[in-house]
Amino acid sequence: xxxxxxxxxxxxxxxxxxxxxxxxxxxxxxxxxxxxxxxxxxxxxxxxxxxxxxxxxxxxxxxxxxxxxxxxxxxxxxxxxxxxxxxxxxxxxxxxxxxxxxxxxxxxxxxxxxxxxxxxxxxxxxxxxxxxxxxxxxxxxxxxxxxxxxxxxxxxxxxxxxxxxxxxxxxxxxxxxxxxxxxxxxxxxxxxxxxxxxxxxxxxx
Length: 205
Fold this sequence. Notes:
Layout lengths: L2 H22 L16 E4 L2 E4 L17 H35 L5 H24 L3 H15 L3 H9 L1 H12 L16 H11 L4
Antiparallel strand pairs: 1-2
Helix pairs in contact: 2-4, 2-7, 5-6
C-alpha cells in the first residue's frame, strides 16, 4: 500500500465519522449549536476531503538473543533508557531556558550570578536523583545528554561554567572510568540504544 492509499483511507475514515455524527443529530433539537471547525484537507480526484497526517512509526525486527545473558543485558538497557531518558530531556530544556534567559541580562556580572544560582538549584534538584543511578546509568546519561543537546557534557560545562570547572568535572569523572567528552553514536555502538529510545518514545516498549 503506497502513501497515496494511506491518505485516501484516512480521508475516507474522517468523512465517515463526520457523516455519522451528522446523522445522529436531531434537527428538531434547538439546544444543539452549529459549530464550525477548521481542519486540513486534501484534494483527491477533484474532491476536497479532510486530511490527517499520522506520525511515522518505525517497525523494527524482533530482537533475538543467543543466550540468557544477552536477553538480560537487553532488558537492563531498556530499563536504563526508561529511567535516564527523561532526565536527559529535562537537562536539555533547562539548558535552553537558561540560555534564553541569559540573553535578557544586561551584563556579564548578572549572567555569572544567574549561572551560580542555576548551578546551585540544579545540584539541589538532581543530586538525590543522581545518587540513585547506577554507574551504567550515569554513563548512559552522559551519552543521552549529548544526544538531546548535540553537545557533550564537557562542552556544556565549559560553555556555562568555564574551562576550569569543565576540566575539574572531567577529571572527577575519569576517576570512575567515565568521560564527559563521550559522544552518542546512533549508527554505531549506540545503535541498539537508539532503537530502544525510538520504541520507548513511540510507546512500543
